[in-house]
Amino acid sequence: IAFYGAFDGEDVEIYYNILPFGQSTNIETVGKIKSSMNVSLNPNPADDILNVNLSIQTNKPIKIEIIDIQGKILFANEFFEYESISIDISNFDTGMYIVKATEGQKTLISKFIKK
After folding, report:
1. Rounded to an integer, what distance in angstroms lies between the CA atom of residue 99 and that of residue 84?
2. Burial (CB count <10 Å: 0-12, 13-18, 19+), residue 14
3. pLDDT recorded at residue 13
4. Of 96, 15, 16, 99, nearest to 54 (Cα)?
5. What is the reported pLDDT for 36?
6. Which residues of the chain, if any, have pLDDT below 50?
7. Cα gap 12→23, rounded to integer Å
């Protein structure tokens, strides 16, 4: 399977090709996966509060996790109101962290830096 993607500022489109082993392609699209779930983090870098802004149309809860670079989950919670979520990160050590937003089978990963 060969993957490539496009981002137009709103939607992420991931294209894929299914090819026999060893065969090359001229990037003829066999299928397309489109996601309208977007996440933005601010401020980034952050001091005490991280604002997670999600853009998605769903009636399902969104699970937000913050994971350190060793893979330890430092924060996990489900939200039903998720346009703007403020998370207290004042007790986090300085460094880089991953924010994982999951809704059903859709997952987005973003990074932020704690000052």
Report:
1. 14
2. middle
3. 52
4. 99
5. 57
6. 1-10, 15, 17, 25-34
7. 27
Question: What six digits make up the tokens of 68?
Answer: 């350190």
Position 30 scores a pLDDT of 44
The total of other beta-carbon atoms located within 10 Å of residue 54's CB is 19
Torsions phi, psi of 53, nearest 5?
Answer: -110, 120
Residue 105 tokens read as: 């089978």
C-alpha torsion sign, points 23, 27, 33, 37: positive
**How many CB atoms are closer than 10 A to CB 95?**
10
Contact assessment for residue 54 and residue 106, using Cβ atoms and an 8 Å cutoff: no
Cα–chain center distance at 6:
15
pLDDT of residue 115: 94
What is the C-alpha separation between 79 and 54, in angstroms, rounded? 11
> Would you give the distance in Å from CA 105 to the centre of its chain?
12
CA-based max dimension of the chain:
51
Question: What's the DSSP call for residue 45?
Answer: S
Element (H, E) at 42: strand 38-42
pTM above 0.90, yes or no: no
